[in-house]
Design a protein that fits this description.
Length: about 240
């Protein structure tokens, strides 16, 4: 008989809650409202580079998943990301409302380079399904992405509005993720946790750690770039 992972103790959530990510200097600056416009613009560009790849990340997991019930959960998540069929409500488009409000037009946004640390975050998520399988990949998305987004984006939101007061409609991307992604995480957890055997537990843990570590590197990249502009306190577009 297959031994199924017990939900009484959840070491997956413990990994994310206790991870060094939350002590990152950039997040501390967000929580203390100590960002400048250039910081927000740098963050926005690199967040967009990752966010627009999230559909591909979900699709790569779907391609590796043979379980039909889990396929439906992934598809529902993907459908939400794509605006439930309305391109004007897709999450990349919602994010572009934010970047436009920051003075970054779509052409400039597309032309600005993806930082190495951002590329590494994208590649980490894209590689996990092939490296560890679909359960571990969904574990990384569930716990190290959807499961932390509400807390993470709440902190980013505080830093953003403190540095660059923006129209409420331009911040809908953050509000949607703060409100909705806990639901996505719960549905993913319900789909995958009963399928994780004791043998697979360590693999899922490793995938979550790699995703969380890559997120730290992402913020390292933002902090590295922001050091170029933190003396002027002006828009990166005009320095």
């Amino acid at each position: 008989m297959t031994q199924i992972y017990s939900l009484v103790k959840n070491p997956f959530r413990e990994i994310t809650v206790n991870h060094p990510l939350w002590n990152h200097e950039f997040l501390i600056r967000c929580r203390t409202e100590n960002l400048f416009l250039a910081d927000v613009q740098l963050l926005a560009v690199q967040m967009y580079k990752f966010s627009k790849e999230f559909n591909r990340i979900l699709a790569s997991i779907l391609a590796c998943c043979q379980d039909e019930t889990t396929q439906l959960v992934i598809l529902e998540n993907l459908f939400d990301e794509m605006g439930q069929g309305d391109v004007t409500q897709s999450h990349p488009e919602l994010f572009r409302r934010f970047t436009r409000a920051l003075g970054i037009d779509d052409e400039t946004l597309a032309a600005l380079p993806t930082a190495p640390e951002t590329r590494a975050l994208i590649e980490t998520y894209l590689s996990i399904p092939h490296k560890y399988g679909y359960l571990a990949a969904l574990g990384a998305v569930c716990y190290a992405s959807e499961g932390i987004v509400s807390s993470l984006y709440t902190q980013l939101y505080k830093g953003i509005i403190g540095a660059a007061p923006l129209p409420k409609e331009s911040l809908i991307f953050f509000e949607v993720h703060i409100d909705v992604d806990d639901s996505h995480a719960a549905k993913l957890a319900a789909a995958i946790e009963p399928r994780i055997t004791m043998r697979e537990e360590e693999i899922v843990k490793q995938a979550i750690v790699e995703a969380m570590d890559a997120r730290v590197q992402f913020f390292n990249g933002i902090y590295r770039q922001s050091s170029k502009y933190n003396l002027s306190h002006h828009s990166l577009l005009f320095t």
